[in-house]
Fold DUF4386 domain-containing protein.
Amino acid sequence: MKTSQMPSNRQIGTLLILGAVLVFIPYTILTVIFDYPTILREPPGVVLTRFHEGGPLLIAVWWAFAITGLPLLQAYVAIGQRLDHTLPFIRWATTLGVVSGLVQIIGLLRWTFVVPVLADTYVHATDPAIRAASVVAFQAIHQYGGVVLGEHLGQLLTIAWTVMMASAFVKLGLFPAWISRFGYVASGIYLLAQGDLFATVIPTFPVWELAGLLGSTLWLVWLLIVGTRFLRLRVSEDVPVPA
């Protein structure tokens, strides 16, 4: 790759910070107007009714929540390009990061293009059988689009990318070691959130309810820290190659 095409440290830092902030905004709005993610523990009929009550605004916020992940995809690619010549696993990490973002975006978009139809059918149907069918359809789509794609695959691949990048930063001496350790801790806590997913099919599976919120929050903080450190690197500073 030509040097002129190489993403700059400033570009990478900006994308990481922008992506973390943009994701946090619609998430916060959803907690206020939809009681997310607590609402997901309610019966499907309650979720569908609340969603229908949210109207176009709620649909738009869910769309924003999905689309605001795009800057992070660009950041994954930019970091991969920047570090590609340094370590053999960087390309794998970049691939995992991009796939993680894509599956999470696809999973989230169900709230924009699928759930509104089911919610409208559930609320306006007079036939109990149709309402029951709407509930079953919602459960199936939520389990696959949300649990399987967005939360299981998406989060696992995100964790893998984070651990690999944190390891790369240590090996390259790019940032202080505590930043990588912070990434490891955030990833470990985030990984514990998988218990909540397995509990949907194995009710006795141990669950730490705070793992998802705490892990994802720490991960966003880690992105902000890494983004800030990239901004502080000199524009002309090259990435060292490990001996």
